[in-house]
Structures are given as C-alpha cells and as structure tokens.
Amino acid sequence: MSRLLRSFGPHLTSLILLLSGVWVIGMIIGPQLIMVEQSFWYTDRGGDAVVITVQIDAHYNDIDVLAFDKMDAEDLAPSPERDAKIAEIDATIAEKRVIIAELETREVIPKKVYSLRNYTIMGGSHLAIFIKTILASVAVTLIAFVVCYPMAYTVAKLATPNRAAIIMLGLIIPYAINELLRVFAWLMILNYNGVANFLLGLIGVEPIAFLESGTGVFIAMVYAYILFMVFPIYNTVETLDTSQIEAARDLGAPTWQIHRRIVLPHAKPGIAVGCIMTFMLSAGSYAVPYIMTRGTAEPWFTQLIYNKFFESLNWNTGSAYAFTLLVACVIFVFLMMRMFKVGIKDIAK
Amino acid sequence: MSKVSQTAFGQDSRIVLNIYMVIFFSYMFLPLILMVAAGFNDFDTPSVTVWRGFTLKWFDVLAQDTRMWSGLINSFIIAVAVIAVSLPLGLAGALLVARLDSRYNTLIYGVMVSPLLMPGIILGISTLIFWREAGVSGGLFTAAIAQASYISSYTMLMFMARLERQDITLEEAAQDLGASHIQVFKRITLPFLKPTILTASVIAFLQSFENYNTTIFSIGGSHTLVTEIGSRMRFGLTPAVNVIGIIFVAITIICAALYVVFREREKVRTAALK
Is residue B121 within 8 Å of B214, Cβ to Cβ? Predict the structure, then answer.
C-alpha cells in the first residue's frame, strides 16, 4: 500500500482503489455470490398455493363472463325484469370480488426456504446431460490438442519467416470470424439436405441425420474452438531457444524424444491455457448447440440453464445449474494447473 | 531457422507435414468458402448443392432488414459503453496489482483474471441476477456491464504487460524535481500507456461486438447484431445471413492481413534494433 501511495499520491490511489473495488466486488464477486445465494433457496408458496391461484383465476373468468351477460341485459328494452337481472348480475359480481379478496389474502407472500432442493431437483436425465456435456468438452479439448500441437510447432519453429507469416494469416482469419458464422457454415454442411449428405448421395449412401443425432453439435464444436488451442501453444513454443532442439538432435535424440523432453515441457503453460480455454468454451457454449440442434437433438447443459431462466422462469434452479457448471470449470482449471504445474500468473498472460 | 527445418525433418516427414497442412487449412477454409458461395446463390434457402445462378439480391434483402440495422446500432452502443467502462477498470486493476506490495497480490490478480476462465454465460447470468436485485431488468445496460466484467480482464492484462516494461526511475525523477503525483501520472504514465490504450480499445470493441454467449443471457428483450444473427440461424434462415457472413469474412481478411503485416514489420524493426 505504501508503494502505491508513494507512486500515485492520495487522490489517485483512492481512485485506483475505488475503480478496482467496483470491478472486483461489484462486477465479479458480488454477482457470483448473489447467484450462489439464489441457488440455495426457493420460494415456497404453501401446499395449496397453486389451488388457490387456480380458484382466483376461475373467479376472475366468471366475472368476465358476467360482465358480458350484463352488457347483453343492458341491450334489452327497459323493463323491471331487465333491471332485476342487471341488479342480480351486479350482486353476483360483488360477491365474487369479496371471495377473490379473501382468497388473495390467503395467497400469502411466498416464503423463502433455504435448501439444497435446486440441486437435488436435477434428476437423472439432467445429470446425464451434464456428464455428457463435460465428457464431450474433454473430448473436444483432446482433439484440439492433437490437431493443433503440430501446427503450433510448425509455425513457431519449422517454417521460414515468410511462410510462417502466411500460415499465421491462415490461422487468424478463421479464428477471428464470428463463432456463429463458423457454426453456421457447418449447419449448411451437415443439414439433412446439406453438402455432406449431397456428397454421400453421390457414392450411394443414404442421407444421415447429423443434426438430430447430436453429432452435428460435436463436429461444429471442434471446428468452432479448435483454434483457441493453437495460439497459446504457439506463444510458448516460440520462446523456446532453437539451439536446444539442435543440440538434442546433434546428440542423436529421435524426434519424439525431442518433443517429449524439450518442446512439450517448455510449452506446458501454453498447453494448460489452450486446454482451459477450449474446455471452458465448449462446456459453456450456448451458440453451438443452439444452432446445431435446432431443438431436435438432446440439449447441451447450457441450454438447460437457459430454459430454467427464460422459459420456466425458475431463476433459483437456473442459478443452481449455472453454479454446477461453474464448479466443473473451476475444477478443470485447477486440474490443469496441477497437471502442468503452472500458476495463475503463467496462465493469464 | 532454415537449418533446423532441414535437419529436424527428413524428406518423408516433410511430405507428411505438407499433407497435414493441406488438410488442416482445407478443414478451416472450405466451410467458410461454402458459406460465402451460398450468399450469391439465387435460391431461397442457404445452399450450394442447389445452384440457381449468381445473384446479388440478398445484399438488398439484408439492407432492408430493419432488425439487423437496429441490432447493429445496439452493438455499437454496447461496444462504446464497454470501452468506456473496461479501460479505466482495467487500468486501475493493472496499476493496483503492479504497485501493491501485498501478500494478497496473487489473490487479487487471480480474481481479476477469473472472468476469463469462466464460461461467458455465467457472467451474463450473474450480472442479470445482481442487477435484478437492484431493480434493473435485462437490457443493453446489463449486457454492457456483463461484457465489461470480463473485457476489463483483457485490458488489465494488456496494461500490465506494458507497465512491466516501464522505466520507473522516470516517475521518481519527476517526483524528486517537485512534480505532483497527478502531474507525473498525466505527463509520464499516461503518455507511456497511450499505445496500449489504443490497442486495448480496439480489442475491447471487437470482443464486445462479437460476443454472443454472455450477451444472450444478459440482454433481456433487446438484441444486438450477433444475437439477431443467432436467432435467424435457428428461425427463418435466408441467404441474407450468408451475406452477413460475406461481409464479416471480408472485414476479417482485411484486418488480419493488416495485423500480420504490422506484426512482421515490428519484428523486423526489433531485429534491426538488436
């Protein structure tokens, strides 16, 4: 703190502390805490709350119908019967209003009950979707690593500077094009009457329903997030002193040994970042399953979260689902940091 | 470097490597080429397998699409707000972490970069819930705040990288000569950070503009260009969406080419300085 004060003086230091506080507490920790808090309670409206609500609705409907009857009655020619009928309808409406008022007092203010219900409510099918989402994301991460490591190594160490620049351009362009558009390209390919089935048809294969089976989500997911593995690995491999590789080769090390003993250990932080990014983006992706399932295939876990929030409007359960996903991602981050023996400062660069 | 490429790989592995490159880049670019091609097809649904001739009519269709235009305007509004929020926050965070000698330093740093390591939808959701407690429902404001919560992490990392290369003696000298803290900050620190302020603004703008996952969870009933594209892809798909693809691809290619050229030039320059 004293160094901060010495560098910036009291005014700037307070401003720095204020802005950092707004960000860290007001935009990161605060919202997360409130989300977690929400996930641990639900609103209990009592056992017969639903029944009461239905009754109230029914009485309101009756009043609407009676209002129409009254209008009909008013259209009649003036006569004592007409007046009697109107008076009778008015009386019934008044009666119903009293009943509604009474019911509405019983439709008590919902009670806030703390429990684990939002988590236990998940059930077998949703848990299965959660596990499938996590496993599929791990698979995407592994595929991305296997495909991207040689590419990153080639750009960093093998290609001539001009060639490396061109390859880099070839990597940056698809990387920078919006996620949705990249997924959309695969929607066109894997659609029932898309390019893939057109090509399969040429060799006499029956059309395959890629989108309905969920394969489409996986294929597009690999395509959408694979490049997030290239750049972190490239950045670390590039800092490796090439003479180390040369020395190993001169001493007779085979290629796979060079990679196992020199390049891979050096690239560890990059691999960790690549794995974390790819996994996190896949597990937390809403765009890819949203576009690629078109509501027919089994949903991704993020879609369950979305439905809880915006379709069944149950924010408490939604928060519990969201927190479950967050915990999975945090565990993955720590696992990667352990596995590759890197700290948080190496990761976020 | 060329020596390594000769020694590290024999003729056979060179061929394997080239085949791998060809497959990799076909995989990366063929889908995009198909998407672009379908935007010029005179057929009602995006397709390349049914070719009805070349047309530019989908550009017209897109130009008359009012929801896309309003989405574009919303995207700009959010992006500008995100820049306005994430630059000061990122700078404050970077200065704090760079100059605070505390054992909580790593913890603070960890919290500040944590939004980059968690799924975007969680940021969207938690921001939405947080502001609902304050009586603000989802809209452009919450979308901008949700985006800024993680884009500030990017700007912070960029400012930190720059601050690491700062020569602190300049500030100290100015202070010894009687400059006030605010003068030092204005005359020395800020000018030193100026290039980063520029690049951080660009990055913040692009991140905000392109964002889907965080935005869709926090924007409520409003829409940005990208969320609108998303709902079109699911409902009411027309080649007008491909035209957006064509425009994005064109802009991306131009920007990426410029970036690579500048990067190479920078590399040559630093090599020359050495």
Answer: yes
